[in-house]
Amino acid sequence: MVGVAFTVFLAGSFFRLISMWRLAKKKDGLIFSYISIFFALRSIVHWILPFAGVSMRKHPAMTIVAFLFHVCLFAVPIFLSAHVILFKESWDISWWRLPDMAAEIMSWSVIGSCLFFLGRRIFLPEVRYLTSLSDYLILAAVAVPFISGLWSYHQWAAFQVVMIVHIISGEIMLMIIPFTRLSHMLFFPFTRGYMGSEFGAVRHAKDW
Amino acid sequence: MTKQKHNFCLAIEFFRKISSMKQTKILFYSVFSILFLLVGAFAAFSQEDIETVNDSAFENQTRPPVVFFHDTHNENAAIEECNACHHMFEDGKRLDDDDSIGMECSECHCSKMKDSMADLIRVYHLQCGGCHLKQKTGPVMCGECHRKR
Description:
The complex is a heterodimer.
Chain A lengths: L1 H26 L3 H4 L2 H12 L5 H5 L1 H20 L1 H11 L8 H24 L1 H4 L4 H22 L4 H18 L7 H19 L6
Helix pairs in contact in A: 1-10, 3-11, 5-7, 7-9, 9-10
Chain B lengths: L2 H17 L3 H23 L24 H8 L11 E2 L2 E2 L11 H4 L6 H20 L6 H4 L4
Antiparallel strand pairs in B: 1-2
Protein backbone atom coordinates (compact mmCIF):
# COMPACT_ATOMS: atom_id res chain seq x y z
CA MET A 1 0.00 0.00 0.00
CA VAL A 2 2.82 2.36 0.84
CA GLY A 3 4.41 1.35 -2.46
CA VAL A 4 1.24 2.26 -4.35
CA ALA A 5 1.04 5.63 -2.56
CA PHE A 6 4.66 6.53 -3.33
CA THR A 7 4.32 5.34 -6.92
CA VAL A 8 1.19 7.42 -7.51
CA PHE A 9 2.87 10.41 -5.88
CA LEU A 10 6.11 10.14 -7.86
CA ALA A 11 4.61 9.10 -11.20
CA GLY A 12 1.79 11.63 -10.80
CA SER A 13 4.26 14.40 -10.01
CA PHE A 14 6.40 13.50 -12.99
CA PHE A 15 3.36 13.37 -15.27
CA ARG A 16 2.04 16.73 -14.02
CA LEU A 17 5.41 18.44 -14.42
CA ILE A 18 5.84 17.08 -17.96
CA SER A 19 2.30 17.96 -19.04
CA MET A 20 2.61 21.45 -17.52
CA TRP A 21 5.91 21.91 -19.36
CA ARG A 22 4.23 20.93 -22.64
CA LEU A 23 1.30 23.25 -21.95
CA ALA A 24 3.65 26.15 -21.23
CA LYS A 25 5.53 25.49 -24.45
CA LYS A 26 2.30 25.45 -26.43
CA LYS A 27 0.49 28.38 -24.84
CA ASP A 28 3.28 30.65 -23.62
CA GLY A 29 6.36 29.68 -25.60
CA LEU A 30 7.66 33.23 -25.32
CA ILE A 31 8.62 32.64 -21.67
CA PHE A 32 11.53 30.46 -22.78
CA SER A 33 13.14 33.44 -24.46
CA TYR A 34 13.52 35.50 -21.31
CA ILE A 35 13.36 32.98 -18.45
CA SER A 36 16.43 33.50 -16.32
CA ILE A 37 17.91 31.35 -13.59
CA PHE A 38 19.21 34.45 -11.80
CA PHE A 39 15.88 36.28 -11.64
CA ALA A 40 14.05 33.03 -10.87
CA LEU A 41 16.30 32.25 -7.93
CA ARG A 42 16.19 35.87 -6.75
CA SER A 43 12.43 35.67 -6.53
CA ILE A 44 12.38 32.18 -4.98
CA VAL A 45 14.85 33.24 -2.29
CA HIS A 46 12.77 36.29 -1.42
CA TRP A 47 9.63 34.24 -1.08
CA ILE A 48 11.18 31.33 0.80
CA LEU A 49 12.60 33.49 3.60
CA PRO A 50 10.16 34.72 6.25
CA PHE A 51 9.39 38.46 6.09
CA ALA A 52 11.60 38.99 3.03
CA GLY A 53 8.64 40.30 1.00
CA VAL A 54 6.24 43.20 1.46
CA SER A 55 3.18 40.97 1.56
CA MET A 56 4.68 38.91 4.35
CA ARG A 57 5.49 42.00 6.38
CA LYS A 58 1.91 43.21 5.94
CA HIS A 59 0.51 39.94 7.30
CA PRO A 60 2.84 38.90 10.13
CA ALA A 61 0.45 36.37 11.73
CA MET A 62 -0.17 34.59 8.44
CA THR A 63 3.57 34.61 7.71
CA ILE A 64 4.56 33.07 11.04
CA VAL A 65 1.83 30.43 10.91
CA ALA A 66 2.51 29.58 7.27
CA PHE A 67 6.24 29.08 7.80
CA LEU A 68 5.76 27.15 11.04
CA PHE A 69 3.15 25.01 9.31
CA HIS A 70 5.29 24.13 6.31
CA VAL A 71 8.41 23.36 8.34
CA CYS A 72 6.47 21.07 10.69
CA LEU A 73 4.46 19.53 7.87
CA PHE A 74 7.64 18.25 6.26
CA ALA A 75 9.88 17.66 9.27
CA VAL A 76 7.47 15.56 11.33
CA PRO A 77 6.65 12.82 8.79
CA ILE A 78 10.25 12.59 7.56
CA PHE A 79 12.07 12.68 10.89
CA LEU A 80 9.51 11.12 13.23
CA SER A 81 11.33 8.34 15.07
CA ALA A 82 8.50 5.83 14.49
CA HIS A 83 8.62 6.49 10.73
CA VAL A 84 12.41 6.26 10.53
CA ILE A 85 12.29 2.96 12.41
CA LEU A 86 9.76 1.63 9.88
CA PHE A 87 12.12 2.57 7.02
CA LYS A 88 14.93 0.93 8.97
CA GLU A 89 12.88 -2.24 9.34
CA SER A 90 11.88 -2.44 5.70
CA TRP A 91 14.92 -1.16 3.81
CA ASP A 92 17.63 -1.12 6.50
CA ILE A 93 18.26 2.60 6.02
CA SER A 94 17.99 5.22 8.74
CA TRP A 95 18.62 8.89 9.37
CA TRP A 96 18.37 11.48 12.12
CA ARG A 97 15.30 11.15 14.34
CA LEU A 98 13.28 13.87 16.05
CA PRO A 99 12.84 13.56 19.81
CA ASP A 100 9.24 12.50 20.46
CA MET A 101 8.52 15.60 22.52
CA ALA A 102 9.58 17.89 19.66
CA ALA A 103 7.55 15.85 17.17
CA GLU A 104 4.53 16.13 19.40
CA ILE A 105 4.78 19.91 19.72
CA MET A 106 5.31 20.22 15.97
CA SER A 107 2.29 18.02 15.24
CA TRP A 108 0.12 20.18 17.46
CA SER A 109 1.51 23.20 15.57
CA VAL A 110 0.34 21.69 12.28
CA ILE A 111 -3.15 21.07 13.67
CA GLY A 112 -3.27 24.58 15.17
CA SER A 113 -2.13 26.04 11.84
CA CYS A 114 -4.86 24.15 10.00
CA LEU A 115 -7.42 25.66 12.38
CA PHE A 116 -5.91 29.08 11.72
CA PHE A 117 -6.19 28.56 7.95
CA LEU A 118 -9.74 27.31 8.41
CA GLY A 119 -10.69 30.39 10.43
CA ARG A 120 -9.06 32.57 7.81
CA ARG A 121 -11.09 30.95 5.03
CA ILE A 122 -14.31 31.39 7.02
CA PHE A 123 -13.88 34.86 8.51
CA LEU A 124 -11.77 36.89 6.06
CA PRO A 125 -14.13 38.01 3.24
CA GLU A 126 -11.35 38.35 0.67
CA VAL A 127 -10.23 34.76 1.36
CA ARG A 128 -13.73 33.36 1.61
CA TYR A 129 -14.45 34.76 -1.85
CA LEU A 130 -11.68 32.57 -3.27
CA THR A 131 -12.56 29.47 -1.24
CA SER A 132 -14.27 26.41 -2.66
CA LEU A 133 -15.26 23.11 -1.07
CA SER A 134 -12.02 21.51 -2.24
CA ASP A 135 -10.03 23.94 -0.06
CA TYR A 136 -11.79 22.69 3.05
CA LEU A 137 -11.31 19.07 1.98
CA ILE A 138 -7.60 19.65 1.38
CA LEU A 139 -7.24 21.23 4.83
CA ALA A 140 -8.92 18.15 6.30
CA ALA A 141 -6.70 15.83 4.24
CA VAL A 142 -3.65 17.52 5.77
CA ALA A 143 -4.97 17.67 9.34
CA VAL A 144 -6.31 14.11 9.63
CA PRO A 145 -2.92 12.31 9.40
CA PHE A 146 -1.59 14.53 12.19
CA ILE A 147 -4.64 14.19 14.44
CA SER A 148 -4.73 10.41 13.98
CA GLY A 149 -0.95 10.23 14.43
CA LEU A 150 -1.09 11.97 17.79
CA TRP A 151 -4.08 9.82 18.71
CA SER A 152 -2.19 6.60 18.02
CA TYR A 153 0.95 7.88 19.74
CA HIS A 154 -0.97 8.58 22.92
CA GLN A 155 -2.91 5.34 22.54
CA TRP A 156 -6.23 7.00 23.13
CA ALA A 157 -9.50 5.08 22.69
CA ALA A 158 -9.58 2.57 19.80
CA PHE A 159 -6.09 3.58 18.69
CA GLN A 160 -5.77 0.45 16.52
CA VAL A 161 -8.58 1.72 14.27
CA VAL A 162 -7.21 5.27 14.38
CA MET A 163 -3.81 3.90 13.38
CA ILE A 164 -5.34 2.47 10.19
CA VAL A 165 -7.03 5.84 9.58
CA HIS A 166 -3.58 7.41 10.07
CA ILE A 167 -1.92 5.15 7.51
CA ILE A 168 -4.67 5.50 4.89
CA SER A 169 -5.11 9.27 5.34
CA GLY A 170 -1.33 9.75 5.08
CA GLU A 171 -1.25 7.77 1.85
CA ILE A 172 -4.23 9.70 0.47
CA MET A 173 -2.49 12.99 1.24
CA LEU A 174 0.63 11.80 -0.56
CA MET A 175 -1.32 10.60 -3.57
CA ILE A 176 -3.41 13.76 -4.02
CA ILE A 177 -0.38 16.08 -3.99
CA PRO A 178 0.12 16.05 -7.78
CA PHE A 179 -3.59 16.39 -8.60
CA THR A 180 -4.86 19.08 -6.22
CA ARG A 181 -3.79 22.50 -4.97
CA LEU A 182 -1.19 20.68 -2.93
CA SER A 183 0.71 20.56 -6.23
CA HIS A 184 2.11 23.99 -5.30
CA MET A 185 4.74 21.79 -3.66
CA LEU A 186 5.89 20.78 -7.16
CA PHE A 187 5.07 23.95 -9.06
CA PHE A 188 6.20 26.69 -6.73
CA PRO A 189 9.76 26.91 -8.08
CA PHE A 190 8.37 27.25 -11.61
CA THR A 191 5.53 29.71 -10.90
CA ARG A 192 7.87 31.76 -8.75
CA GLY A 193 10.64 31.51 -11.34
CA TYR A 194 8.20 32.56 -14.06
CA MET A 195 7.11 35.62 -12.11
CA GLY A 196 10.67 36.41 -11.07
CA SER A 197 11.89 36.26 -14.68
CA GLU A 198 9.07 38.42 -15.98
CA PHE A 199 9.52 41.05 -13.27
CA GLY A 200 13.29 40.91 -13.33
CA ALA A 201 14.11 40.55 -17.02
CA VAL A 202 11.14 42.32 -18.64
CA ARG A 203 9.70 44.87 -16.23
CA HIS A 204 12.90 45.45 -14.25
CA ALA A 205 10.94 45.40 -11.01
CA LYS A 206 10.72 43.42 -7.80
CA ASP A 207 8.06 40.79 -7.36
CA TRP A 208 8.24 40.43 -3.58
CA MET B 1 42.54 -41.73 54.21
CA THR B 2 40.53 -41.70 51.04
CA LYS B 3 38.74 -38.50 50.02
CA GLN B 4 35.30 -39.98 50.60
CA LYS B 5 36.14 -41.09 54.13
CA HIS B 6 37.62 -37.67 54.87
CA ASN B 7 34.37 -35.99 53.77
CA PHE B 8 32.38 -38.38 55.89
CA CYS B 9 34.44 -37.43 58.99
CA LEU B 10 33.91 -33.75 58.30
CA ALA B 11 30.16 -34.30 58.06
CA ILE B 12 30.10 -36.14 61.42
CA GLU B 13 32.03 -33.29 62.98
CA PHE B 14 29.57 -30.76 61.47
CA PHE B 15 26.58 -32.61 62.88
CA ARG B 16 28.24 -32.78 66.30
CA LYS B 17 28.73 -29.02 66.19
CA ILE B 18 25.18 -28.17 65.23
CA SER B 19 23.73 -30.59 67.78
CA SER B 20 25.08 -28.29 70.42
CA MET B 21 22.84 -25.47 69.09
CA LYS B 22 19.37 -24.96 70.29
CA GLN B 23 16.87 -27.29 68.63
CA THR B 24 14.45 -24.51 67.68
CA LYS B 25 17.16 -22.47 66.06
CA ILE B 26 18.20 -25.42 63.89
CA LEU B 27 14.63 -26.07 62.89
CA PHE B 28 14.19 -22.44 61.91
CA TYR B 29 17.33 -22.34 59.79
CA SER B 30 16.56 -25.67 58.10
CA VAL B 31 13.05 -24.68 57.10
CA PHE B 32 14.28 -21.29 55.92
CA SER B 33 17.07 -22.81 53.82
CA ILE B 34 14.81 -25.38 52.20
CA LEU B 35 12.24 -22.72 51.31
CA PHE B 36 14.98 -20.50 49.93
CA LEU B 37 16.33 -23.33 47.76
CA LEU B 38 12.85 -24.25 46.50
CA VAL B 39 12.04 -20.68 45.52
CA GLY B 40 15.44 -20.36 43.87
CA ALA B 41 14.99 -23.58 41.90
CA PHE B 42 11.51 -22.51 40.82
CA ALA B 43 12.80 -19.17 39.66
CA ALA B 44 15.68 -20.73 37.77
CA PHE B 45 13.56 -23.13 35.75
CA SER B 46 10.45 -21.00 35.13
CA GLN B 47 10.21 -17.85 33.04
CA GLU B 48 6.78 -17.09 34.46
CA ASP B 49 8.09 -13.94 36.11
CA ILE B 50 9.21 -12.38 32.82
CA GLU B 51 6.67 -9.73 31.95
CA THR B 52 8.55 -7.31 29.70
CA VAL B 53 11.24 -7.48 27.05
CA ASN B 54 14.37 -5.86 28.43
CA ASP B 55 17.82 -5.26 27.06
CA SER B 56 20.45 -3.32 28.96
CA ALA B 57 21.57 -1.72 25.67
CA PHE B 58 18.41 0.38 25.67
CA GLU B 59 19.57 3.10 27.99
CA ASN B 60 17.21 5.88 26.99
CA GLN B 61 13.95 4.17 26.21
CA THR B 62 11.70 6.32 24.04
CA ARG B 63 8.76 3.90 24.10
CA PRO B 64 7.21 1.96 26.98
CA PRO B 65 8.82 -1.49 27.44
CA VAL B 66 7.07 -4.30 25.59
CA VAL B 67 4.66 -6.30 27.70
CA PHE B 68 5.54 -9.97 27.21
CA PHE B 69 4.53 -12.96 29.30
CA HIS B 70 7.12 -15.53 28.27
CA ASP B 71 5.35 -18.77 29.22
CA THR B 72 1.86 -17.64 28.28
CA HIS B 73 3.11 -16.46 24.89
CA ASN B 74 4.84 -19.73 24.12
CA GLU B 75 1.87 -21.79 25.24
CA ASN B 76 -0.46 -19.78 23.01
CA ALA B 77 1.98 -19.83 20.11
CA ALA B 78 2.77 -23.54 20.66
CA ILE B 79 6.50 -22.86 20.65
CA GLU B 80 8.37 -25.91 21.94
CA GLU B 81 11.97 -25.22 21.02
CA CYS B 82 13.79 -22.49 22.93
CA ASN B 83 15.93 -21.65 19.91
CA ALA B 84 12.84 -20.81 17.88
CA CYS B 85 13.48 -17.36 19.34
CA HIS B 86 16.79 -17.72 21.22
CA HIS B 87 18.60 -18.55 17.98
CA MET B 88 22.34 -19.03 17.53
CA PHE B 89 24.25 -18.41 14.33
CA GLU B 90 27.70 -19.46 13.23
CA ASP B 91 29.26 -18.23 9.98
CA GLY B 92 25.84 -16.99 8.88
CA LYS B 93 24.23 -20.39 9.44
CA ARG B 94 21.54 -21.01 12.00
CA LEU B 95 22.48 -23.82 14.39
CA ASP B 96 19.63 -26.26 15.01
CA ASP B 97 21.11 -27.78 18.15
CA ASP B 98 22.36 -24.63 19.85
CA ASP B 99 20.63 -21.68 21.48
CA SER B 100 21.39 -18.28 23.01
CA ILE B 101 19.47 -18.62 26.26
CA GLY B 102 20.72 -16.22 28.91
CA MET B 103 22.23 -13.85 26.36
CA GLU B 104 20.88 -10.40 25.57
CA CYS B 105 20.05 -9.81 21.90
CA SER B 106 22.40 -6.81 21.98
CA GLU B 107 25.39 -9.08 22.70
CA CYS B 108 25.38 -10.10 19.02
CA HIS B 109 23.12 -7.60 17.33
CA CYS B 110 24.56 -4.35 18.69
CA SER B 111 28.24 -4.68 18.05
CA LYS B 112 29.94 -3.12 15.06
CA MET B 113 27.12 -1.21 13.48
CA LYS B 114 27.00 2.48 12.68
CA ASP B 115 23.63 3.33 14.15
CA SER B 116 23.60 0.47 16.62
CA MET B 117 20.42 1.56 18.36
CA ALA B 118 18.38 1.57 15.14
CA ASP B 119 19.91 -1.79 14.20
CA LEU B 120 19.02 -3.29 17.55
CA ILE B 121 15.47 -1.91 17.39
CA ARG B 122 15.23 -3.35 13.89
CA VAL B 123 16.14 -6.90 14.87
CA TYR B 124 13.76 -6.80 17.83
CA HIS B 125 10.92 -5.61 15.60
CA LEU B 126 11.70 -8.18 12.93
CA GLN B 127 12.00 -10.96 15.50
CA CYS B 128 8.62 -10.23 17.14
CA GLY B 129 6.60 -8.37 14.51
CA GLY B 130 8.13 -10.35 11.64
CA CYS B 131 6.91 -13.61 13.14
CA HIS B 132 3.51 -12.10 13.94
CA LEU B 133 3.15 -11.02 10.31
CA LYS B 134 4.30 -14.41 9.04
CA GLN B 135 1.96 -16.31 11.33
CA LYS B 136 -0.82 -13.76 10.68
CA THR B 137 -1.48 -13.50 14.39
CA GLY B 138 -0.21 -11.31 17.17
CA PRO B 139 0.25 -7.55 17.45
CA VAL B 140 2.01 -5.56 14.72
CA MET B 141 1.15 -1.91 15.50
CA CYS B 142 3.50 0.22 17.60
CA GLY B 143 1.09 0.77 20.48
CA GLU B 144 -0.05 -2.84 20.65
CA CYS B 145 3.30 -3.95 22.09
CA HIS B 146 4.69 -0.68 23.49
CA ARG B 147 1.65 -0.17 25.68
CA LYS B 148 1.37 2.88 27.87
CA ARG B 149 0.39 1.80 31.36
